[in-house]
């Protein structure tokens, strides 16, 4: 058991080093030697876990997605909260946005990785599967919202969930690349406005 734990810790160490290296140098200029330097280990050790840069990159993407999944679970990703569905959707979507230093660093690297999904079938599968799981999760929440009267009966929950994921990705892009009017507060306000339209607060009788 200890040996397995040490193995996983080493892989995590290398993954975090990869993210730091890509964040500093960009994906195209990052080498296995750069990752080894960031991790404070030999390039031979890195290669003992990942024989090629492609294997390392795939592991790095999986690590990023796992970090996002863990944040979602922390706000009730395995079930809806006691409060309104809208409240859960807002807090879940908020975890996907670059609204603190850690998430900004991770999502900056995510933007570097995205172009590889156009040419690497495994990267494409990872991105597609993760996006699909995210859409499924929001679909489940919106179906619950419809049963509770928060979502209009004629709305298609899956279409609305897919649109929400795309909207959050757009906010992420502009927060990281455009800046300016896309401050942290402005991004939160935009998400709030979007959900006001999607899940309006029912009028009091």
TrEMBL record:
Signal peptide boundaries: none
Ranges of residues in domain HTH tetR-type: 8-68
Keyword set includes DNA-binding: yes
Domain of life: Bacteria
DNA-binding region location: 31-50
InterPro entries found in the cross-reference section: BetI_C (IPR039538), Homeodomain-like_sf (IPR009057), HTH-type_TetR-like_transc_reg (IPR050109), HTH_TetR (IPR001647), Tet_transcr_reg_TetR-rel_C_sf (IPR036271)
Alphabetized UniProt keyword annotations: DNA-binding, Repressor, Transcription, Transcription regulation
Molecular functions per Gene Ontology: DNA-binding transcription factor activity; transcription cis-regulatory region binding
SUPFAM superfamilies the UniProt entry points to: Homeodomain-like, Tetracyclin repressor-like, C-terminal domain
Protein name, UniProt field: TetR family transcriptional regulator
């Amino acid at each position: 058991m200890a040996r397995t734990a040490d193995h996983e810790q080493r892989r995590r160490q290398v993954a975090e080093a990869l993210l730091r290296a890509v964040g500093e140098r960009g994906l195209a200029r990052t080498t296995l030697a750069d990752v080894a330097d960031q991790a404070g280990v030999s390039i031979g050790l890195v290669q003992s876990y990942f024989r090629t840069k492609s294997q390392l990159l795939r592991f790095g993407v999986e690590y990023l997605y796992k970090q996002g999944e863990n944040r979602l679970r922390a706000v009730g990703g395995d079930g809806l909260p006691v409060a309104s569905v809208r409240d859960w959707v807002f807090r879940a979507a908020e975890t996907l946005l670059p609204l603190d230093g850690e998430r900004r660093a991770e999502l900056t690297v995510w933007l570097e990785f995205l172009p590889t999904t156009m040419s690497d079938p495994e990267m494409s599968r990872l991105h597609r599967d993760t996006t699909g799981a995210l859409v499924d999760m929001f679909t489940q929440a919106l179906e619950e919202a419809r049963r509770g009267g928060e979502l209009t009966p004629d709305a298609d929950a899956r279409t609305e969930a897919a649109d929400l994921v795309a909207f959050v990705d757009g906010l992420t892009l502009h927060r990281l690349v455009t800046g300016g009017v896309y401050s942290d507060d402005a991004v939160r306000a935009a998400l709030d406005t979007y959900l006001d339209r999607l899940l309006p607060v029912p009028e009091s009788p």
